[in-house]
Amino acid sequence: MTPGRMGAFPRPGVFVPVSAASGRRLSPDMMPIHFILASGSPRRRELLALLNYPFEIVVSGADEDAHLDAEPAAYVAHTARAKAIAVAGRLSSDPTTRRLVIGADTTVALDGAILGKPGTPDEARAMLARLRGRDHYVHTAVCLVDVAAGRELNAVHSATVTMRNYTPAEVEAYIATGDPFDKAGAYAIQHADFRPVSGLRGCYPGVVGLPLCDLISMLRELDVPDRFDPAALVDAHAGHRHTT
Fold first, then answer.
1. Catalytic: 226?
2. What is the pLDDT of residues 62-91, one digit of tens each?
3. With helix as H, strand as E and coil as C, how does the chain read?
4. Fewer CB within 10 Å, N- or C-terminus of the chain?
């Protein structure tokens, strides 16, 4: 989905960046850029690192269940935005750095229903049984907030994922690793041993948790220069880590 604008980020006051040394105003393109990832996900952290900008992690604490009654793509859009806005709203003014907050959320949808993170082995087992051998959607939303400019961009990437016909024994071995319990739909596409997916139409990093193509387009719209290694992004989209 093409990134779209959903209005300015609501914040009190007006922020004017200035140089600490001279007292002169700094234009945004003169300020060092710092990302803030509003997520504790190690998978999103690994993907964001590929863009080669400094970043920090600030977990939002946003209510991820507030919009469960929405359709799946709208649900992740609301949740990603809630994460980004919650973190951006807690930031104090910084006249020397251009800070960009990135919120993201991912869900698995089967037959129009959201499959969240399983809380028990039985829930994981049931989700994986429903998904086995079938197509489903993975929706990942990204909200990008330019704190100083008061600007906000939003996008949702939807991929179609086909699961292979894994065996009950493979499911039990996977559940025993503990990996399903922090994953929407009870699986990770990138799991080296289980490898549950047989086909994908869409963005691999988006299914992992951060659609880099959409995020890069959004950053370019905000005039953020590219710093990534193209080979690393090719590897990420192929589903494996880049090595130098």
1. no
2. 777 777 778 999 999 999 999 999 999 998
3. CCCEECCCCCCCCCCCCECCCCCCECCHHHCCEEEEECCCCHHHHHHHHCCCCCEEECCCCCCCCCCCCCCHHHHHHHHHHHHHHHHHCCCCCCCCCEEEEEEEEEEEEECCEEECCCCCHHHHHHHHHHHCCCEEEEEEEEEEEECCCCEEEEEEEEEEEEECCCCHHHHHHHHHHCHHHHCHHHCCCCCCCCCCEEEEECCHHHHHCCCHHHHHHHHHHCCCCCCCCHHHHHHHHHCCCCCC
4. C
